[in-house]
Amino acid sequence: MATKQHCAYCFSVLIAELQGADSRDIKPDFDVDAKYPLFVTWSKKHGNHSRDNDDDEQLRGCIGNFAAMKLGTGLREYALISALNDSRFTPIRLGEIPELSCSVSLLTDFEDAENYLDWKIGEHGVWIEFKQNGRKKTATFLPEIAKEQGWSKIETIDHLLRKGGYQLTITSEMRESIKLTRYQSKKAHLSYVEYTEML
């Protein structure tokens, strides 16, 4: 289960890194040897909003790994990669920290879907494999994405294909050729205000 302690650790790691300290010196207060595939997401608030509401935030970075990783090393690694190396965004700066929230998603219950529609919006994350010019490509959305965006299943698949780099016209035949894996996620969310209250 993802917890606020996991998110707080990510905050501490990022702050240490941006201040020039060694983030490896930070001691987590959770089971560092538990293994999960995981994603770390950083988001930035829009104006005034409830500190527990993550629906009104803009994405600042989201990267993870589908291989099961020890939480101690995995969260440290992806807290920094998602904050500083997500190619879609500029690296997070120290001055932004008070405006940020962190989410940790631990991925579970991976299942091969029968087809590209064999999953439920809001319940399943989807990971697709497809081929373009003979090369295998992949892309994923966490379980909350389709619901947050108001997408249908087909719209979600089409956005995933574009995210994965597919540039040709998307046909029903293309969608049917996809190998889809569905999964679930245990997610925790923590604002910077909540983080400071935990110190």
UniProtKB/TrEMBL annotation:
Matches recorded under InterPro entries: AMMECR1, AMMECR1_dom_sf, AMMECR1_domain, AMMECR1_N
Secretion signal span: none
Pfam families, sorted: AMMECR1 (PF01871)
PROSITE patterns attached to this UniProt entry: AMMECR1 (PS51112)
SUPFAM superfamilies: AMMECR1-like
Domain (AMMECR1) ranges: 1-199
PANTHER family recorded: AMME SYNDROME CANDIDATE GENE 1 PROTEIN, AMMECR1 HOMOLOG
Protein name stated in the entry: AMMECR1-domain-containing protein
